[in-house]
């Protein structure tokens, strides 16, 4: 270890001034626009288009904003921004960031031309806001993404891919301008025979199926997407046909394929999803703390009781611990460091479970009030539960971490 006082520090958890500015700017929007709409859009169970429009006007809902935060030099741009948005309200915030999952699917595996052509129409522009959707899950392929049945058939005569199948649980499904669909090009190869396909706006054969009525994040639209003989041009295969053919050939020869479309997307997005959970947990902690300082029973604020103060201490400590795991994973991902010990999964697992526990503790601290819709913590508790389910359930994260730390094929 160097003791030279001239040696600049090589490690710091201090956010740069730029990042602090971004955090303040996003926080203001979350506090002034997102949070005041939380209860209304939760009841309406609809995409909050007017809020998307407002965010678009100030450049917050834009490809530029998400791209800039993804490229932020420390890797913390996205986690810091997402924590603030979800601190505002998780349902509305998911509507604001749902398109990024489709964008990441194209960025992770696509060509520069595909990124340039298909990302802008996932966001639109002020006055004409658009959405993107990432369609991987199916009724019989949730955690087991290798079981995807949606079929992609190549029609050489027209240089088109023909997609058939039913996707489910799709955020923005059917209302998005651009859908990115994971399908089996070579079904017998399981996950290694899958590829992602861009379905451009207005293509015949894609329609929304059932829209789900959910427990939480109700301002975010979730629906089935039915694909019936959907024909997309050859250039819509993410990464291109040459790369897919090479990959399939490698797999058939028994060599490693090196890439798996859906799994790669989920790995890249895990710390971002974990940051969302941290935002919800922080909102609940702050609300419960303020309430506990204010609410008087037995002649003194309830926060004066160790039972309550220690609960607040646990809430705050676990949120900070979760955030540190998120920042580590985001920093590693940005620097191209592999998640050898499943660090991305660790961040998602801990943050999701912290969000569920902390929001429940917040209800406890608010007592009867916490159990009503007059106060936001019951909504935040309903919202928090999604973080142990989507983008890989807690059980799946433990399985991935278990495999990484033992080297065994844990099932
Ligand atoms: C609101 C919402 C939005 C979503 N958005 C999208 C989206 O935009 N795009 C998309 O593609 N998907 C999306 N999903 C789907 C989501 O990723 C899946 O719901 C999730 O992967 C779990 O799949 P499943 O629901 O089929 O549960 P299942 O896989 O059936 O799991 C049920 C239970 O069994 C457990 N389990 C399963 N396998 C194992 C195992 N091997 N070991 C231990 N336990 C196991 C699970 O952990 C879980 O507790 C969304 C889901 C929701 C609810």
Unreliable parts: none
- The percent range for strand residues is 5-15%
Q: How is the main sheet built?
A: 4 strands, antiparallel
Strand order of the largest sheet: 4-5-9-8
> How much is the radius of gyration in Å?
22 Å
User: Helicity, in percent?
Assistant: 40-55%
Number of helices: 14
Bound compounds: flavin-adenine dinucleotide
Structural class: alpha+beta
List how many beta strands DSSP finds.
11
Topology as H/E string? HHHHHHHHEEEEEEEEEHHEEHHHH
- Morphology: globular
C-alpha end-to-end distance: 41 Å
**Average pLDDT, all residues:** 95
Can you describe this structure in just a few lines?
The protein is built from 14 helices and eleven strands. By secondary structure, it is α+β, with helices and mostly antiparallel strands.
Report on the architecture of this protein.
The chain is globular. The protein is built from 14 helices and eleven strands. The protein is an alpha+beta fold and 411 residues long. The strands form four sheets. It has a four-stranded antiparallel sheet, with no helix packed on it. Strands 3-6-7 form a three-stranded mixed sheet. The model has no long low-confidence stretch (mean pLDDT 95). The structure holds flavin-adenine dinucleotide. Residues 101, 134-137, 142-143, 169-171, 214, 217, 222, 386, 389-391, 393, 395-396, 399 line the site of flavin-adenine dinucleotide.
List the helices and strands and how they pair.
Layout: H1 17-44, H2 49-57, H3 63-70, H4 77-88, H5 90-97, H6 99-109, H7 112-118, H8 120-123, E1 124-125, E2 128-129, E3 132-135, E4 151-155, E5 160-171, E6 178-184, E7 194-199, E8 206-211, E9 222-233, H9 241-252, H10 261-294, E10 296-297, E11 300-301, H11 306-334, H12 343-366, H13 377-384, H14 394-406
Parallel strand pairs: 3-6
Antiparallel strand pairs: 1-2, 4-5, 5-9, 6-7, 8-9, 10-11
């Amino acid at each position: 270890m160097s003791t030279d006082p001239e040696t600049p520090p090589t490690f710091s958890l201090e956010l740069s001034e730029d990042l602090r500015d971004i955090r303040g700017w996003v926080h203001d929007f979350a506090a002034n626009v997102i949070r005041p709409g939380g209860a209304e859009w939760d009841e309406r169970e609809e995409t909050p288009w007017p809020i998307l429009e407002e965010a678009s006007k100030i450049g917050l809902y834009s490809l530029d904003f998400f791209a800039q935060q993804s490229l932020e030099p420390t890797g913390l741009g996205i986690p810091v921004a997402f924590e603030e948005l979800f601190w505002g309200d998780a349902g509305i915030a998911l509507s604001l960031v749902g398109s990024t999952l489709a964008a990441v699917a194209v960025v992770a595996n696509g060509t520069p031309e595909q990124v340039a052509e298909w990302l802008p129409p996932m966001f639109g522009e002020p006055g004409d806001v658009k959405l993107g959707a990432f369609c991987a899950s199916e009724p019989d392929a949730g955690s087991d993404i290798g079981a995807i049945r949606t079929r992609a058939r190549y029609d050489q005569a027209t240089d088109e891919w023909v997609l058939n199948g039913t996707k489910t649980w799709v955020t923005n499904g059917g209302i998005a301008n651009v859908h990115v669909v994971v399908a089996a090009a070579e079904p017998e190869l399981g996950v290694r025979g899958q590829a992602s396909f861009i379905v451009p706006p207005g293509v015949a054969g894609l329609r929304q199926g059932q829209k789900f009525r959910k427990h939480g994040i109700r301002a975010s639209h979730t629906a089935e997407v039915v694909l019936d003989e959907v024909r997309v041009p050859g250039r819509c295969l993410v990464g291109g046909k040459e790369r897919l053919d090479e990959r399939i050939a490698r797999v058939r020869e028994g060599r490693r394929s090196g890439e798996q479309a859906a799994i790669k997307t989920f790995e890249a997005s895990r710390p971002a999803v974990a940051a969302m959970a941290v935002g919800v947990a922080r909102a609940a902690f702050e609300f419960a703390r303020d309430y506990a300082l204010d609410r008087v029973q037995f002649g003194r604020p309830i926060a004066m009781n160790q039972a309550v103060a220690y609960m607040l201490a646990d809430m705050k400590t676990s949120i900070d611990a979760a955030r540190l795991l998120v920042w580590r994973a985001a920093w590693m991902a940005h620097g191209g460091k592999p998640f050898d010990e499943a660090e991305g999964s660790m961040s998602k697992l801990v943050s999701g479970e912290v969000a569920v526990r902390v929001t429940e503790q917040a209800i406890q601290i608010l007592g009867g009030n916490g159990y009503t819709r007059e106060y936001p913590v019951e909504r935040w508790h309903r919202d928090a539960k999604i973080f142990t389910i989507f983008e890989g359930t807690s059980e799946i994260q433990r399985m991935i971490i278990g495999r990484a730390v033992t080297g065994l094929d844990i099932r």
